TrEMBL record:
Location in or out of the cell: Cell membrane
Catalytic activity of the protein: Release of signal peptides from bacterial membrane prolipoproteins. Hydrolyzes -Xaa-Yaa-Zaa-|-(S,diacylglyceryl)Cys-, in which Xaa is hydrophobic (preferably Leu), and Yaa (Ala or Ser) and Zaa (Gly or Ala) have small, neutral side chains
GO molecular function: aspartic-type endopeptidase activity
InterPro entries, per database record: Peptidase_A8
Membrane topology summary: Multi-pass membrane protein
Keyword annotations of the record: Aspartyl protease, Cell membrane, Hydrolase, Membrane, Protease, Transmembrane, Transmembrane helix
PROSITE patterns tied to this protein: SPASE_II
Protein name as catalogued: Lipoprotein signal peptidase
Organism per entry: Candidatus Caccousia stercoris
Length: 160
């Protein structure tokens, strides 16, 4: 299952890069294209920070932190065996989204954002959606499906 999860993560990152290529080719010259008046538009933004533009121009910090987090997720997936389809899917979404944005930071120095909804000020992209949905799935797993352990018992058991 971890290999399928990695494959899905790569597919998600490739889809993200294709979408960003289309955005750069078609939206960058015009800036904004309204899809649903007052609700949804595509707006080309070069994001040099994190969510909400925080920590602008910290390119290498984000590259290093994303790399570390992706390695930690991979180690946990391969080393411990209490995973479900939900946690594998969540991991694939987080890894794929992280990889998609990391490629932008490495090659462009910024992340291409393009989705804007009127009730949410920041502009975001497909990779951001993948990371947020993956994180939400992890939270759902922990809150509703995770096996409850008695106090003092280790939470993670290594594969043997």
């Amino acid at each position: 299952m971890p290999i399928l999860m990695i494959g899905l993560a790569v597919v998600l990152a490739v889809v993200d890069q294709i979408l960003k290529y289309v955005v750069v080719q078609n939206l960058k010259p015009v800036g904004t294209h309204v899809l649903i008046e007052g609700l949804l538009d595509f707006t080309y933004v070069e994001n040099r920070g994190a969510a909400f533009g925080i920590l602008s121009n910290q390119r290498w910090f984000f590259i290093i932190m994303t790399g570390i987090l992706m390695v930690v997720i991979l180690i946990l997936l391969f080393r411990y065996h209490h995973h479900t389809t939900l946690t594998y899917l969540a991991s694939a979404l987080i890894l794929g989204g992280g990889l998609g944005n990391m490629v932008d930071r490495v090659w462009l120095g910024y992340v291409v954002d393009y989705i804007h909804v009127s009730f949410f000020p920041p502009v975001f992209n497909f990779a951001d959606c993948a990371v947020v949905i993956g994180t939400a799935l992890f939270v759902i797993h922990v809150l509703f499906f995770a096996e409850k352990k008695p106090a003092g018992e280790p939470v993670l058991r290594r594969k043997r």
